[in-house]
What does this fold into?
Amino acid sequence: MPHTCSIKASILLVLLSTAFVSALNITVYQPNVPFAPLPWPLSHAESEGDEIISLFQNLGRNTVWKSIANVSFESDTFEPEGIVRLGPDRYVVSAGQWTEPTAPFNTTINGTDRSTGGGFSHLIVFDGGGSRIADATITRRGDIEYHNGGIDFDGEFLWGTLAQHRPNSAAYVYKARPESLGPEPVLHYDDHLGGVVHDVQTNRITALNWGSRNASTWDLDEISDQYQASSTSEYTEPENTVRKPSHFIDYQDCKFLGHSKHYQNPPVMLCGGIAAIGSGDDTSYLGGIALVDVETMLPPDEIPIALRSALGVPLTVNPIDASVENGKLRLYLLPDRNNAILYIVEVQ
Ligand SMILES: *[C@@H]1O[C@H](CO)[C@@H](O)[C@H](O)[C@H]1NC(C)=O
Ligand SMILES: *[C@@H]1O[C@H](CO)[C@@H](O)[C@H](O)[C@H]1NC(C)=O
Ligand SMILES: *[C@@H]1O[C@H](CO)[C@@H](O)[C@H](O)[C@H]1NC(C)=O
Ligand SMILES: *[C@@H]1O[C@H](CO)[C@@H](O)[C@H](O)[C@H]1NC(C)=O
Ligand SMILES: *[C@@H]1O[C@H](CO)[C@@H](O)[C@H](O)[C@H]1NC(C)=O
It folds into this structure.
């Protein structure tokens, strides 16, 4: 039987008074198993990031992806939004549990086009075989910023976003230690935010808005003191916002890979996503992955991926992570809702 952590009361965090009331309700399913594995994993930027970029150079439209394993994740994974692989025996999944659907306004009200709906954000930890170790609910009942986006790991913190579940809305960026999962607010912004990455070298974070049409970047050295001091829900203006020029796919989940020697040293991230083409019954979905220059949002390389889950969902629709195994690029993809299967594929 799962038991709810007895220290729950003490970790029901109330952070920054009115600015961000963070709820942390963790149910621990494997009491003696740490959430984060030992040895502590390195970030991609500190380990195989450049090798991932290098192997990406060999990919193309005709790349054959070999199925390595399908790992059934135990229990409800809701709508998976992001994944961080912490070595071979841990996955952290950000997921959204929707309790009330958003309803279209059929017009624009306050800049957006639908109602808030309702739900909860989760960070769920699984071991390498898919057994659930812990499920943290990181928002409270009634919170309107309940949509968890893509996540990244910088070697110390997980980075994520808690947004309203609608375009042109508002969002927090948070960070959380993988060993405790408690979200710490970093900033509040007046747009929806999804995927986010942290460049440790420049101490900047970049987050994508609805459909990844824009990327906004904040210099954490500039904003952290300001945010901590304000303790209000004021918005923190980004250092800049860049329009994403590629319309090939909308990026959902990204992993920071480091400053790449392959492209004159820009910060590079790996992103997965899809494009919905057409409308109504004629809609088709194109999946793909891209290397993206985090500063310009220009993708120096991108390829389509036609793979689908057993349920017919494009494998790149939401969570993606990557590793290099015996010199081969491996992807970790979690496309389906609710009873998710992790599809592990490798370049043949
Ligand atoms: C904590 O989470 C569990 C599992 O999601 C849920 O059943 C329970 O109602 C939650 N408790 C509180 C106080 O929110
Ligand atoms: C918007 O349109 C849909 C479909 O026509 C309808 O079901 C819904 O009630 C409308 N919403 C509002 C707020 O009028
Ligand atoms: C629009 O914004 C105003 C002012 O914040 C608020 O009172 C109103 O409820 C909002 N309308 C909707 C439909 O959310
Ligand atoms: C992108 O950002 C620009 C500049 O801030 C803004 O004018 C534009 O409306 C944004 N576009 C989207 C789709 O968010
Ligand atoms: C994983 O599932 C896919 C789709 O259902 C299937 O084609 C593939 O053979 C499976 N892979 C393994 C290793 O079982």
About this structure: Residues 1-19 have pLDDT under 50 and may be disordered. The chain is about 5% helix and 45% strand. Residues 4-347 form a domain with the Tachylectin-2; Chain A fold (CATH 2.115.10).
